[in-house]
TrEMBL record:
Residues 24-181 form the Diphosphomevalonate decarboxylase-like N-terminal domain. Residues 207-338 form the Mvd1 C-terminal domain. GO terms for biological process: isoprenoid biosynthetic process. It comes from Chryseobacterium pennipullorum. InterPro entries: GHMP_kinase_C_sf, Mev_decarb, MVD-like_N, Mvd1_C, Ribosomal_Su5_D2-typ_SF, Ribsml_uS5_D2-typ_fold_subgr. This is Diphosphomevalonate decarboxylase. Keywords: ATP-binding, Lipid biosynthesis, Lipid metabolism, Lyase, Nucleotide-binding. Gene3D superfamilies: 3.30.230.10, GHMP kinase, C-terminal domain. GO terms for molecular function: ATP binding; carboxy-lyase activity. It comes from the Bacteria.
Length: 352
């Protein structure tokens, strides 16, 4: 697969237009950390798309005016974000040849708190890519829904890598792997539904807000640190290898295997940052307390409560929606919430 199929048509017909779209965030189970030129991932990744944590975006395009971008985040003007989007639009011109032929006013808001560590760049670029494809349909003509989604995923990737996985609901793969047919480094694809055990189709993700504030390492810096990390190649290889057990786990419903693999991936991501130069420790005291309390709880009860982490201190608590759900929720409220800064928790689900 090459980028050729995404090159835009030169014959288009622009006019002033406003479009709106919404896109959820996602949480990776096998992590993407490290990339090559043009946002090509160093290894394949797989994520759950969240159901409630979304970005809602409206894009006003004023045709035939000189190119400029103005952005508003929850009503307040954001100049830095506008500069980022301007650069992004210039970068994707070959795929949408009309894109620099007007002025944009972009209004965006998240349904989740900014400080939650929930990937707003994933939902944000996902929503922008969907808006762009809506405009493209009006200006350059309709293409099939499948092709349009794939191109939205391709475009979102060029904004923020993990955003390409947010275009689809369910379990989503980005990055070429022999284990998933049709997978690509250029865009994400849904993991085949027929190969997913029912137990993985209704899951909870409760995000504990351990530390609210700016992340100490941006993902751009974080990916860059992998270029000099002496363990990087082994890590990329491990992520590729992890698709083999993951496939079998998803097919058979092996919860124990799933827990072990997902927690290992999260800890590996953080270990990579600890072994980078400069080193980063992104966990806080509360993160460690939560992890130890979860391990204790699992040992005592055998119930399937486990965690994953993004590049930050907050903890994503994962547990299936089945018989033990209420007991797990009670435990979170009574034992884990105390480790957050302000009793902060964002409750989401994955259902498909
Ligand atoms: O899409 P980026 O460049 O923000 O990278 C995201 C990386 C992680 O969230 C840490 C892992 C992942 O696969 O989503």
């Amino acid at each position: 697969m090459t980028t050729q199929e995404f090159i835009g048509k030169e014959n288009f017909n622009i006019h002033t237009q406003t479009v709106s779209e919404s896109c959820p965030s996602n949480i990776a189970l096998i992590k993407y950390w490290g990339k090559y030129k043009d946002q090509i991932p160093a290894n394949p990744s797989i994520s759950y798309t969240l159901n409630h944590c979304k970005t809602n975006t409206s894009m006003e395009f004023v045709a035939d005016e000189s190119f400029s971008v103005q952005t508003f985040l929850a009503g307040s003007e954001e100049v830095k974000f506008a500069e980022k989007i301007e650069k992004y639009f210039r970068n994707i011109e070959q795929y949408l040849p009309w894109i620099l032929k007007g002025r944009y006013i972009i209004r965006t808001e998240n349904t989740f708190p900014h400080s939650s560590g929930i990937a707003s760049s994933a939902s944000g670029f996902g929503a922008i890519a969907k808006c762009l494809m809506k405009l493209d349909e009006m200006f350059a003509g309709k293409i099939s829904e499948e092709k349009s989604l794939r191109k939205a995923s391709f475009l979102a990737r060029l904004g923020s890598g993990s955003a390409c996985r947010s275009l689809y609901n369910g379990l989503i793969v980005w990055g070429q792997t022999e284990e998933v047919q049709g997978s690509s480094d250029l865009f994400a694809v849904p993991y085949p539904d027929a190969e997913i055990h029912e137990v993985f189709k209704r899951f909870n993700d409760w995000v504990l807000l351990i530390h609210e504030g700016q992340k100490s390492v941006s993902s751009t810096v974080g990916h860059g640190l992998m270029n000099t990390n002496p363990y990087a190649e082994r890590r990329f290889q491990e992520a590729r290898e992890n698709f083999i057990p993951m496939k079998e786990i998803l097919r058979s419903g092996d919860m124990e295997g799933f827990i072990k693999l997902v927690e290992h991936e999260a800890l590996t991501l953080h270990a990579m940052m600890m072994m980078s130069d400069p080193a980063f420790i992104l966990m806080k005291t509360g993160t460690l307390a939560v992890i130890n309390t979860i391990w204790d709880f699992r040992q005592k009860t055998g119930l399937p409560l486990f965690f994953t982490l993004d590049a930050g201190a907050n903890v994503h608590l994962l547990f299936p929606s089945n018989g033990s759900e209420e007991q797990i929720k009670d435990f979170i409220e009574t034992e884990l919430l105390q480790h957050t800064q302000k009793n902060g928790v964002v409750k989401d689900v994955m259902e498909f």
